[in-house]
Design brief:
Blueprint (H helix, E strand, L loop, with lengths): L1 H5 L7 H29 L19 H6 L1 H6 L9 H5 L17 E7 L6 H11 L4 E5 L7 H8 L3 E6 L4 H4 L3 H19 L5 E2 L17 H11 L3 E2 L4 E2 L8 H11 L6 E7 L5 H16 L3 E2 L16
Helix pairs in contact: 6-12, 11-12
Bound molecules: zinc ion.
């Protein structure tokens, strides 16, 4: 900006313009400072619960990202400059995965099967509560692909689920699986600039439906994806599928499925088409976890990866 000014024919106004710019900057800073305070006050989390975001545990670097969420939602961050790009890109040379749960109560909300018409509302609710989550995306509704970029820019992690979500097609052979993964990887790369290392198998690694198409395919893939630089995340608990249940049922399922009180919970929900009851239930699910003393974070390479028993 300054260099453009210096190249203009008249040099005299530079000092007054400098002062004016300074005053405007101070005013803008004051405005956003006040706004940030108001945003905090307006959050629905109640004061007697654990804070939504904690920044005390250095072993959870995602908290730092989460702590700056007001900024990330207010600015249109260029994904090319995002430090997560290098960290989260698939990289076969990195094998530093974590399978040990920590001693801090953490919930990693994950949303499968989007993006869809429900994703925007999920994002807005997460912003309301100041929570970062993870989206395992599909190619079911390509018209919503720009939402993948939107999710990422708002500070959420993007993972690969499947392009077609057609079990018969995806699990027809290992080659078919890899072709499907490459296809959703390309779609995500177009939105955020790289292929992420986080994946979730359709049906989870424990699915047995794949046995209808290729015997033993999950045993093979579970090893091969990690060798190829990916990590797969099953889940510790789920609210069930929003297409088949009411919001009340999803909330009750959440409580039932987390009754064992794990410290770390990778939690499965859905933001796919037709899963509007997930949107309806989400505030209550979040508030339930808050009342139980959990904080929230998006997946990163340090997140303990839950692996189900392989069923095929
Ligand atoms: Zn799915």
């Amino acid at each position: 900006m300054a260099s453009h000014m210096r190249n203009t024919p008249s040099r005299r106004p530079i000092l007054p313009i400098g002062i004016a710019v300074g005053v405007v900057c101070v005013a803008i800073a004051a405005f956003f400072g006040i706004r940030a305070l108001l945003t905090n006050d307006a959050r629905p989390s109640s004061s007697d619960q654990a804070p939504v975001v904690t920044a005390t545990d250095e072993s959870q670097p995602t908290n730092d990202t989460a702590a700056t969420e007001e900024n990330s939602t207010d600015t249109s961050m260029d994904t090319q400059d995002d430090p997560r790009n290098a960290e989260f890109a698939v990289d076969p040379s990195r094998t530093d995965w974590n399978y040990e749960t920590g001693d801090t109560k953490m919930v990693y909300l994950t949303f499968d099967d989007g993006p869809s018409e429900n994703t925007q509302q999920v994002l807005d609710i997460l912003d309301q509560y100041g929570i970062k989550a993870t989206f395992f995306v599909t190619g079911i509704n390509p018209e919503y692909f720009p939402m993948i970029r939107e999710c990422y820019q708002r500070g959420h992690t993007i993972g690969l689920h499947t392009y077609s979500h057609d079990y018969e097609q995806v699990y027809a052979s290992t080659d078919a699986y890899w072709a499907d993964l490459a296809q959703i990887g390309e779609a995500v790369q177009e939105q955020i600039g790289y292929v992420p290392c986080f994946i979730r198998f359709p049906g989870g690694s424990s699915n047995t439906i794949s046995a209808n198409y290729t015997l033993g395919i999950m045993s093979e893939l579970a090893t091969d994806v990690v060798d190829a630089g990916y990590q797969y995340y099953d889940w510790d608990a789920s609210c069930g599928d929003g297409a088949d249940h009411t919001a009340d049922e999803l909330v009750e399922a959440t409580k039932a499925d987390t009754a064992y009180g794990y410290q770390t919970i990778v939690f499965l929900a859905h933001d796919g088409a037709g899963k509007a009851s997930t949107v309806e239930a989400l505030p209550r699910i979040i508030e339930y976890f808050q009342s139980e003393g959990y904080s929230f974070a998006p997946l990163d390479r340090q997140t303990p990866a839950p692996h189900h028993g392989i069923g095929n």
